[in-house]
Structures are given as structure tokens and as C-alpha cells.
Amino acid sequence: MGRWDTQAVGSGVRRVSRSLLGCFLGAVLLASCGEDAEVVDKPDNTGLDPAIESQVDDWLGQMTLEEKVAQMHGTELLPADRIYPTADNERLGIPGFRMVDGPRGVAVGQTTTFPVGMARGATWDIELEYRVGEAMGAETAARGANVLLAPTINILRHPAWGRAQETYGEDVHHLSRMGVAFIQGVQQHVLASAKHFAANSIEESRFQVSANMDERTLREIYLPHFEAAVKEANVGSVMSAYNKLNGEYCAENRHLLTEILREDWGYKYFVESDWVFGTHETPPSLQAGLDVEMPKDKIYGQRLVDGVNDGSLDVKLVDEAVRRILRTKLTFKLDQPEQVPESVVASPEHRALALQVARESLVLLENKHAALPLTNTTPSEVAVIGGLSDTINLGDAGSSNNDPLDVVTPLAGISARLKGAPLHIDHDVLTTADETALASQKVAIVVVGLTKEDEGESIPGRPGGDRETLGLSAEHQALITRVSELVETTIVVLEGGSAITVAPWVDQVDGLVMAWYGGMNGGTALAEMLWGDFSPSGKLPLSVPVNEQDLVPFDNQADSVDYGYFHGYRQLDDDGLEVQYPFGYGLSYSSFEVSDLQVSTNKGAVALTLTLKNTGGVDAAEVVQAYVGYPGSAVERAQRELKAFQRVEVSAGQSVQVELQFPKGSLRYWDTASAGWVLEDLEYEVGVGFSSRDLKLNGSFRVK
Ligand code: GLC
């Protein structure tokens, strides 16, 4: 039973805390529902809860201006424990927020380190992502915090983005599903925070760049995953981005924070700024609808009090912001924090979950002449090579960084799986002695890729930033080439948070695995997969181009960048370009077929049914994907867009029925002229298959 799911009140009246809030709410709930009545704690998504609104009115009526403004900003620039507070109001018994990062693990003390968001995006496993959110929400509460500053759900416009690892991928639908699942999990315990709202996808110019786009691109490409976070996951907070949108800072952008977020989507909780450089001037932020300035007051402290007192700022806008803040605290019961024991943090269950995510995130990109799995290979026949092979490489050193208790590296995982030490070369430039030793090896596993030095949040004095190129370093490429000349079977394992181009060397290798930043148990999952303990099922949540020039331009120096309607697979399709590995691609140790596609429409949705057969010899999972095309559309459309997917486990030789559904509303386009959504009366095409470029079955359906 989730914390804010409906709970019966009556004989089993929930313990209410002694604060004014608890007594007040308890009294109202008892008075209005009597014995054993069903009481919805969480106001329904459309209306407001009268008991909560009444309590907010009561508090606002009692608060001084200074007390109101004290609700609207944090109080510590760099808290030692990384828990960012806003003030409590002792007099009225109103608790403050306690906010903590981060998307790959709770950034307070030592906690479970999960695979990064992009790796989790590669699992395409919505139920698993819910469990990751629930685990991280519980660890947040165990650390005494009540807001987890995650998920990062900025769409991956270009894989060179320094923080690509934090988000889930390049597609709106896939990103929405993963983000909603994570938020729903987190909010079983604490508030999640959908960030960074919006269009934050260039790192090094993030504090000043203006992302410019037309309204259709904004509504269809850069916002739907935030809209889903609000409307489907009831996200408790939204973080405004550093950058500008069409020339206006996001924290000062009324179109974004009020007209869209609140008036169009019905969001009723609070918006916090991004840290320090996320706010600029008081009046525009107050008028735009920014509620909380983090990590401490610059525009929302004395300047705000003075502005109201001198009449230049409208106290009604302060009241509206404080109302949203108080409504959030009441709705999410911040005064009755869930008591979660310390033992939950990095518990055996959470560690096992991190391992399962790492397993499902591995994407097998090449497997020539079934080089993998490596069955019957003894430790003496195996070489594990590369500076990264025994290095802790979990992701960037920025705000998403968390402190793992322990980590299984690729070498440690392989040694454990082999029950013996393979030949280990822990550097990237081979010596003559290395080459001599390699000549007698049967299999070489070369671990290369990116580290926090190559990509990550851009914080002065720390490594990170956007990537210069999408390829491997010259050293890593030379190592791969040389090893492939010396050893019979060469398997390359890539670590990183985004697309890595491979064209210069991929023909020289026998196996290729994208292992991402695989979390604290990544090495165990990798070894299990290489030796066939399970079949890989990961699918790319992004496109890997043949040449990085095939993608949209990535300019991280300009102060103004035009965002087009197309990027990723939709752009590569539109440009008619070959891709190295398409969006949704990943190999298996088994093989699958789909058949019997049936397409039907009911009043609000399109339903697909089909048969999925595991035609190979091993149990495995496949991700069935459905893409829609819009022939005859009145406006420019992508050739095909993902509208539904499902990860399905099938035993060897078995068949299962798969049902996919998507709302007709997902077919709409934003008509800028009428400033509204249009659902066209078309004969839509639908393709079903195993990647955006591997559609096996086709059908069509009409929507009137
Ligand atoms: C950072 C990041 C944001 C993070 C916040 C607190 O600058 O942009 O994602 O949650 O500050 O660390």
C-alpha cells in the first residue's frame, strides 16, 4: 500500500501525529467519513482537497510576510550531508523540505548505486524502473529527506550532452513510460522532482543558452514526458532548468511555469529552481510562477519582502506560491514522515535489484559466429584487458554522483564467474610482454569507453562537460585493433552513458556489448551474460549513427540554439540515413518471430494483439515495439514514431500472446495556428518489430 494511496479511515484510524496539522486533518477526516469509510487521502487529480485547502487558508491567514517568504527558499548553500533544507515553521508546525540528489542513487552517505538512467532506459522494463524508484524513495526517507531530486527526464537531443547518462533516451514515449514508472515508485515514500523543466540538453552553456523552438516542437518533443509526470504520476515537484526557452530563463518563463504547467496540465504542487544560477530577478520569477528558490535565497529572500512592502511586488503572487508549497506539504504528509529503518539502505534486496537492472540493461550489439556466450572457457584461456577493466566507473562526478558501498568491476565479476583469475592487463597501451602473453590466449575481453573525465555535469573545478566527439579515444581504438590481431576471439565491452560510434574498428571484433555505467554490481551482470547465465535483452534507448555528422548539430558554445522538430531515429529516418545501430536495437542469444498481428480501435485507444515466438534454444526476453506512420498527414510528420512497447520473457520454443495499446491522443499534432491539439482523420500505419528499423508486421487503422 503506497503512502498516498487511498486508505480506509475509521476503526483503523491512522495514527495522526500531535502536530496541529495531524489533529486538524484527523478531525476533519473522522468528522466527514465516520467509521470504516473509504477516505481518499490524496485529492483526486482534477480537484483540490477541501480539507487541505482549508488548512492552507488557515495558515496563510496566520502567517506574516516574512514567514511566507521563508517558505520560498532554501537555507544552506552547501550542506555537509548533501541534504538541502528549506525552513521549518515551528510556530505553526509546518515542516520544511529536505531535498537530496540523485538519479542513480541517493546522494547522502553510502547508498545503493544503481545503473545510470540511460542504462535503465536500455532495459525497457517499466515494472523494474518502478521498483528502482521505490527503492530510492525508501532510501531517501531512511536518510531523513522528503524530496528526491530525480528523475532527470530531459530528452536526449544529441548523445554528446554531458548529462546524457542521467536521462532515459531519445524518444518521447519511451522516456515518458520510464519517467512515470520511476516517479510512481519514488512517491510511495517521498516526493520526486521532474527535472529540468525544460529543454535542458546542452551542458556547458546551460546557464545562459536559449533553446529556441516553435510551439509544436515544444509541445510534441520537449514537454510530453513532463506532462506525463504531472498527469499520470502526480509528481510532487518540478525543477525549472537553468537555460532559457525562446529567450526567457525557464525560472522566469510564465508560458512554461504557469500557462502550460498549471493552466494546461493542472499541476498544483510546487516548482523549485535549479541551484544557484537557476534564478536571476525577483519580479519575473514571481510572476512566472517559480515557488522555491534553491539552495538558498538570492531573489526570494529580503528582496521579496522589500518588494511587497514597497508595493512593487503583489503579495497575492506570494500567497499563490506559498499556497502551492503548503498544499504539497499537506498532500504528501511531510509532517508525518514515514519511519524507514537504516537497514533499508543498500539492503540485500536493493543490491539484488541493482544487479537485475544491470543484467537487463546490457545491450549485445555484435555477436559474429556466435562468439558469445563464452561456454567452456577456462581462466587460462581468457584475457581481460584495459585501464577500465578493474576501475570503478559508475558515472559522472556531478550532482548525480553518489557513494557506493562496494563495486564489482568487470575483472572482479569475470574472475568470480570463472572461479579463477584470467590474464589481466590493466592498461591501454600494450607492451611487448603483453603481446607475447596475449598470443597464447583464446578470448580477449577488452573494456574501453568513457569516464567522468569524458562526460558529466559541468561544475567548475570538476571533470565533466559535453563530449568533444562520439568515438572512442585513439588509444582505445588502437588497443582494440591490436588485440584483434593477436587473439582468436575479441569481445569489446563499452562503458559510458550515451552513444559511442564504432565504425572505424567494429569489423575487427567478434562481440560487442554496451554495458553503460552499470552500477555497483555491473561487473557481475557482465560476467554472467558473457558466460551465458542469461540471454541479453537490452535495447538501445538511443540511435548510434555511423558518423556523428549524420546527427543534428551540437553547439555547446552558442548562447542561442535552434531546436528542430527532428532528432535521433526520427531525424535519421527523415534524412534517409543508414545507422550503425538503430533505436530499439539489441541482440539476444535466442531468436524471435512475431505473427498474427490484429489491429483494432475502440473509443479512446488503438489495440494491437500479436503472437511472439521464441524460436531459439534458450529462454530469453524480447522487447516488442510498435511504431506508427501518418501517410497523408496535413503536416510534416516523422516517418514512424514509437507508440507502444513491451518487454516479454519467453521460454525457448514457446509462444505468447502480446497486447499493446496506446491512446488515440498520442497521434495528435500541435497546431500552432489554433494553439491546440489536432487528431487527424487518417488511415494510420503501424509497424511491429524489434527495433525502429526492424518492423516485421504491418497494419493500418483509421481514426475518425
Ligand atoms: C545541479 C543540477 C541539478 C541538481 C541540483 C542540486 O546544478 O542541475 O540536477 O539536482 O544542482 O545538486
Description:
27% of the residues lie in helices and 21% in strands. With 704 residues, the protein is of the alpha/beta class. The strands form nine sheets. It has a six-stranded mixed β-sheet with strand order 3-4-6-7-9-12. A six-stranded mixed β-sheet has the order 13-19-18-17-14-16, sandwiched between helices. A four-stranded mixed β-sheet has the order 11-10-8-21, with no helix packed on it. A hairpin with a 4-residue loop joins β28 (669-671) and β29. It starts with 6 loop residues before the first strand and ends with a strand. Bound molecules: alpha-D-glucopyranose (GLC). Residues 101, 149, 195, 274-275, 399 line the site of alpha-D-glucopyranose.
Notable traits:
704 residues, alpha/beta, 6-stranded mixed β-sheet, 18 helices, binds alpha-D-glucopyranose
Count of helical regions: 18
- Residue windows where pLDDT falls under 50 for at least 5 positions: 5-45
Ions, cofactors, ligands: which are bound? alpha-D-glucopyranose
- Main sheet overview: 6 strands, mixed
Average pLDDT, to the nearest integer?
94
Structural class: alpha/beta
- Cα shape: globular
Radius of gyration: 26 Å
Structure summary, number of beta strands: 31
| Straight-line distance between termini | 40 Å
DSSP helix fraction: 25-40%
State the strand order across the main sheet: 3-4-6-7-9-12
Beta-strand proportion: 15-25%
